[in-house]
Design brief:
The chain is α/β, with parallel strands linked by helices. 30% of the residues lie in helices and 11% in strands.
């Protein structure tokens, strides 16, 4: 057990107690065992311990710091290493059945947890059992179960039955044993879910995703319906203003469904039931350009859109994004048939460029038009044309 430690020239808090009163000088010190308590130590001058019963300036200052330190230590959480351990094992392909102790997740106090690339089923059961015994105040908000190739509908139902009530963000990308039944589990067991990623799950369908979007549209948590603003009384001689329509807040803020053959029906469901959608992933989509343009008119808050390799995402869909989505920051149109002229119009409408006039409301930061319709010479010139603007334009490797 450490009994004493010599520190030369301590000058940082809480060692300011070693500074002599009336002076800015600091002095060497010893940390001596405190006879009054076994939990803390008392500072004393390096020239020797104070005589019995005597108090020094340093001891007086430490006596004031000690109670505050005790309170802080009593309420402080210890650093939690188990999430990093699980992530490290998964990254090495070692998160398999039997790799974790039976009570590995017991008492785990974190808001976010990743079991991505887990190769077993047992870790899901261990986490579900631990979450079922978790105190009411300890909530898991974000869970990453991406690329878990042994995660099936039954395992997901058991896990969300234990922790789904508090989840707000869930990643199930490339967990390809999941089927349309998983959408029913999400709707029933995760009432607060606002951001879900099911991309790459080819056993799921766009029809089931549309049904899920409509099913959760009426839920009030965590976003409640916004009350209509009060109607102003008409002045004398003026016609009374009509009653404003109520603004309904949709619950979903993010949906990534690339690979689910996203069609016009799913986009229409999102426009009608999730008007506050911020993130949309519909790569490899089967939707029409006109259907996308129509849906975007009802999705004005989009920030991040991914439509890569959607063969029918054409110029009119790009023009609709430019016209309706003022907050758009990123668009991935890799492998789509948009033309250079449409891309240039889009950039002129969305990019903040001093040379074109200051428009701080334009927020576009990223545009990927690699492998689009071209012509190639004009496409390759786009980054050069916009090199002084606050945007990254990707046209090649």
């Amino acid at each position: 057990m450490l009994r004493d430690l010599c520190l030369a020239q301590i000058s940082l808090t809480p060692a300011r107690c070693l500074r002599a009163r009336g002076s800015d000088d600091t002095h060497g010190a010893l940390l001596l065992a405190n006879p009054e308590t076994a939990l803390f130590v008392r500072c004393a001058p390096a020239t020797g311990a104070p005589a019995a019963g005597a108090k020094s300036a340093w001891a007086d200052c430490w006596a004031g710091i000690e109670p505050a330190t005790a309170g802080a230590r009593a309420g402080a959480r210890r650093p939690e290493a188990r999430p990093q351990i699980a992530r490290f094992l998964a990254s090495r392909g070692a998160l398999v059945d039997g790799a974790l102790p039976a009570r590995f997740f017991e008492g785990l106090r974190v808001d976010a947890l990743s079991l991505a690339a887990c190769r077993g089923r047992e870790p899901f059961a261990l986490l579900a059992a631990a979450q079922a015994r978790q105190p009411a105040g300890e909530t898991l908000v974000a869970l990453d179960l991406g690329s878990c190739l042994r995660l099936d509908d039954a395992a997901l139902e058991a896990l969300l039955g234990a922790c789904g009530a508090t989840l707000e963000r869930l990643c199930l990308r490339d967990s390809r044993k999941l089927t349309d039944a998983a959408f029913g589990t999400l709707a029933a067991a995760a009432p607060r879910l606002v951001d879900v990623d099911v991309g790459g799950n080819f056993n799921m369908t766009a029809a089931a995703a549309a049904a899920y979007v409509r099913a959760v549209a009426g839920d009030a948590a965590p976003l409640a319906a916004v009350a209509s603003p009060p109607r102003k009384r008409a002045r004398r001689g003026e016609a009374e203003a009509p009653e404003p329509e109520p603004v309904v807040e949709g619950r979903l803020l993010g949906l990534a469904a690339s690979g689910l053959k996203v069609n016009d029906a799913l986009l229409a469901a999102l426009a009608g039931s999730a008007p506050n959608l911020r993130r949309l992933g519909c790569g490899f989509g089967y939707f029409s350009s006109a259907g996308f343009a129509s849906a975007v008119a009802g999705l004005r808050h989009l920030v991040d859109v991914r439509v890569q390799w959607s063969k029918r995402f054409e110029d009119d869909a790009l023009d609709a994004l430019a016209a309706h989505c003022d907050s758009l920051r990123a668009l991935d149109a890799l492998g789509t048939p948009v033309t250079v002229d449409a891309a240039d119009r889009f950039l002129r409408a969305k990019v903040h460029d001093d040379a074109l006039g200051r428009r701080p409301d334009r927020r576009l930061e990223y545009l990927n038009v690699r492998y689009t319709a071209g012509p190639k010479a004009q496409l390759d010139a786009l980054p050069e044309n916009w090199k002084y603007a606050a945007v990254t334009v990707v046209v090649g490797a």
